[in-house]
Each structure stands twice: as structure tokens, then as C-alpha cells.
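[step 3/7] fold_predict: job queued, chain A
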Amino acid sequence: MKHAWFLAAVAGALAVPSIASARQVTLETQMKDYGGDGAYVAIYLADRTGRYQKTLWAAAPKAKYWRHLSDWYRATGGTAKVDGISGASVGAGKTLRVTVELADTLLDAGYEIHIDTAVEKMKENPSEVVVPLTSAGAAKPVPGRGYVKSFRYTL
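[step 4/7] structure written:
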């Protein structure tokens, strides 16, 4: 009995790190040369039903403009928490490259990365990019349908 208890305790201790393991994922969003001001960009994660899970990065320093990133804004209920995961808007023709930490359990589990974009006095693009978060999709560029020339993530 003592031996079984010891083995169960060791197995549990070894399992905990694998449950909590995460990996560094680099998100690279290359913008088109669209000829306007800097773009606001929200990159966020949704589950297989399309329900918002978390913001990965927001290139949107002024909250008063977040409503123009409409799918993201609606999904967060207008109360996004972006402390430590936000930065300046992204200029035309520039590349936004950020590294985030994602739990291994999210990979190949039906999650999607969404990107909303907006440019002042120009069109808004809710869910401009939607890409499954899979190991097979890593490093493969995906075109946007608005200001994003291409998006890719690397594991």
C-alpha cells in the first residue's frame, strides 16, 4: 500500500509540469502599404465555437478607439485588459512582431487566432484574419482581407 501511494505521488508530481507547460509563440503581422495612418490591430484567441478566450496583443494604445476593432471589442464586452500586452499602432508597410506565451493545450485543440484592424478615416476590418492554431499551420503565411498583407505564427 505504501509503495502504491509513493508511485501515485511521483506520477502526480511528474504530470503537473506537463499540464502547466507553455511555449513561446511569435506572431508576425505584415501590413500592406495602404497609404493611411497607423493601424490599430487586435490579435486575440477564440475557442472552437468562436467565443473569445484572451487578447494576445493589442497595437491600440488609446482605449477610445477600441470600438473600431469591433469583433474584438464586442467579444471583450468593451473591457479588454491589455496591460503588458499592448503597444503603438502599426504603420503602413511595417511588420508587427510579438512573442507571447501560450499553453501547450491550446495547440491543435480547435482554437483560432483572430485579427481585427482599423485605420483612422478608413475602413474597419473585423476578423480580418482567422487562422486555426495548429502545429501544421505554424510558419505558414495567411493573407489578410484588408490592411494585413500576411500573418504567420511560429512555435
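[step 5/7] annotate
Residues 93 and 127 are 20 Å apart (CA to CA).
The helical segments are 2-19, 70-75.
exit 0
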